[in-house]
Amino acid sequence: MAGNSTRIRALIVDDEPLARSNLRVLLGQDTDIVSIQECGSGAEAVKQIQAERPDLVFLDVQMPECSGFEVLKRLEADEPLPVIVFVTAYDEYALRAFDAGALDYLLKPFDDARFQLAMQRAKQQLAVKESLATPEASRLMVRSAGQVVYVPIPDIDWVEAADYYVCLHVGDKSHLLRKSMAELEQELDPRMFCRIHRSTIVNLRNVSTLEIDAAGEYEVILAGGHKLRLSRRFRKDLLARMQEFGTPPG
Fold this sequence. Notes:
alpha/beta, Rossmann fold, 2 domains, 31% helix, 32% strand, globular
């Protein structure tokens, strides 16, 4: 796994052999890459990721039978997911890629400088993920009104998207942090936090019950009584996470 002495296991997923070859050459020039594997289809990628648990995946969007988005959908219940960098020749998928949790989005053809930027971001993300596995790294630093506030991560009740920021709800206080939801989700411990909507992440230990409203939609009820909408897309994952967390939903 990546860390202070970064050792990254990479996987390239693309149905075009030339595209895989180009990425392999670029990755081979990075001394932090200790292994490079390839897949020529999305279905093969799902099996490879589940079996080998790579740290970093360069994932093509458009592939026959199983697209890059479908790969992530099939892996939704798997934890932890690798850092994902989408690679495609079509820029219209960018927003959807970040909504799906991708760290970066490489638009073909990209130059060496753009690839190096993606690698820099990936290494930073991997370092953060590893540091969060230690008790020492349990706070988020928030700059506000000329001061720095350190927010203990376990104290965060829920998170909501707010334009180019995320809003951290901690008890009766809230803090704006300049990060995307996808970036923050990568940093939070998946054993404690779960995405329940494209714009909402919740602390599992703060979930009290699930309720069904008059329209048949689910709502997540927090311990303090706050109600949050549960998207159908994330319902299955939340139920599975709650069972793993040891607190079956009511």
